[in-house]
What does this fold into?
Amino acid sequence: MSATDEMREFVRENSDMLSRVLACGNDEARAYALALLANCDEVDSVEEVQEQLNRIKLESS
It folds into this structure.
């Protein structure tokens, strides 16, 4: 398995955690989460994270 494949798998399996990092993490943590999303080349994964991020925002308001 290549590093890119491993990254895609990580993003798919951890989209909820990435959403929470984007919503609540510090600048460095958000930067790492965004780097993973930007380099995974999976539109479905990015959209799933976006949907979860929207839910988190609704829960906190």
Observations:
- The chain has a mean pLDDT of 87.
- The helical segments are 3-13, 15-24, 27-40, 43-60.
